[in-house]
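Reviewers of the previous submission asked for a worked example of the structure-prediction workflow described in the proposal, so we include one complete record here. The input consisted solely of the amino acid sequence. No template or homolog information was supplied to the procedure at any stage.
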Amino acid sequence: MVGDQDMSKAAAGPSRRRLFVYNGGFLTQGRVRRILDLAGWDISIGQPMEQDAVGVWGKSPTSPRGEAVADRKGAPILRVEDSFLRSVHTGREGDAPIGLNLDSRGVHFDSSVPSDLEHILATHPLDDTALMNRARNAVDHITRAHLSKYNAFVPGQNLPEAPYVVVIDQTRGDASIEYGGSNADTFREMLVFAQTENPGSTVIIKRHPETISGAREGHFGPDDVKGRVRLLDAPVSPWSLMEGATAVYTVSSQMGFEAIYAGHRPRVFGQPFYAGWGLTQDEYPVARRERKLTRAQLFAAAMILYPAWYDPARDCLCELEDAIDTLEALARAWREDHAGYHAVGMRPWKRPHMKTFFGQAKDVRFARSLEQAQNAAADDGRQVMAWANRVTQDDDVIRIEDGFLRSRGLGANLIPPLSLVRDDLGIYFDPSRESRLERLIAESVNLPSYAVDRAERLMRTLQSSGVTKYAPPEGTLPDLPDGRRILVVGQVEHDASVLLGCTDVATNRGLLQAARDANPDALILYKPHPDVAAGLWAGAVDAPACDVELSCDPASAIAAADEVWTMTSLLGFEALLRGKPVTCLGNPFYAGWGLTRDLSPPPARRTARPSLAQLVHAVLIDYPRYHDPVTNSPCSPELALDRLIHGPVPSPSLINRLAAKLQGVLVRRT
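From that input alone, the workflow returned the following structure tokens.
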């Protein structure tokens, strides 16, 4: 925010001020209280003194109390409202906001006086190249992730048949209607205009989420469904809806703001913050708004400069980009999980983590067999999930596996994961059929620039930290002779990726021999799989077949090598991340895209040629799900990586440690 009168910006500095409130929500809503605290405000009750301010919630029914006290005491008012990206569900359903608009001049939806937001829009230069690029990138990210103020919808679902005209309803009593110079009659006027100006077109009335849930009444209902008018009474992505629209009509809904970024010039019948800047058709313009802005300028002001964004995982104020990452993870989890699951093939120790990852929207129920799960799903509409190697290739289930940034310690030690993958097509280690990851990699060649930049930042953090699948580096690299070094990566030989992805060479000894035959003069370094080295699974090479066997961490081993040879190990992908040439004797998910030397013919369908950053985005950002053990919430890959580097991270329980040791004993006896 800008301006010498801007209290909320000044409060972000070292000085703090008391904020006297007369609305119980400021005291009971912990997230609101915390954001205000981080912004420099100490919530207080009683009577304000000199230098104190009065806090009110927008133009809520309780705001006159605070306004009266402020008028009597001559105290300034700070008006607080939800930000334009808020949560998955509405506040009435219990979700906390990820940001607040803190306004010392007015409130963004009250057109009678300029707000801090309007002041920014009218006076800020809005000409900084970096700021405008941030705005454009954020728009791309929000639209790609289908994010809105509320996000309990599944993109692509509940859409009417295109083309159509969209009329946006709002809840009765919404303060933005009255203070935007409108009333209930304005909605009737808008519907008439929509039909008159679009003869022959279907008119879709988009209802508000709180109207759909039954919490609040809207302005339109079933009685309005006549002629060409239809009622959209189901949750829908605003971005999906706008794609099929030929025109958009609104009074003061935030969806009108989103319509601008979906390529429309909405017809506006109220006086919302986004009207009057040359990007809308205004039926009742605000005379003082004379400046013409670009879409990027409007967005930068409303979404970057104006709000106070909050990072719940790090408990700090943050930038818009961090808030988008947080909300994207929360929305993705709800969209994928809201129907609930019946799960099969989950070992008892994994079940709590399945509930943690996939059961926050609706519970995960565990079945004894696939048939039992499928029968139960037919009755209650839940999805069927299974651990990937516990079902056949033909079973119609959602397959679950460990993610690629998993934990600090071995999975075979029964350490809980920070990431899991959920695949509705196949599974990444089975090259015989398309997986969701394979499709994401193929589509990654069309990623926008912001996404590629994000992947490159993630790569740099991985490179500098030394983190691999099992977290930070441990162990030391021995002194190695000079010369060309080939790192050969061992695997658990009965691992599904070996069984399904290898043909001619499917053993560690065979891999070592192939590397030796092709590189007779090179120094062959061998890195056994950590589970094999720990004695937790079979696959040890029973006689020397290399020059040096390494027990150091994978990142150090990769750094010491000139080239990496593997069958299907994830370490081959981690070597690509670190700029090393990789030769594959099997068909791992990262082979066949032009980034590796493939000695086994890859699937013919892998024709796309992504860059390394595009591949990384598909593999580490789009495909896995991440979970923060501190907040017990879905999170971004960046946060999961931060936890792996700095902690805290989960550790195995006593029972799990004993079970892992027993497993190792049984393996050594077989």
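The chain has a mean pLDDT of 92. We consider this example representative of the routine output the project will generate in years two and three.
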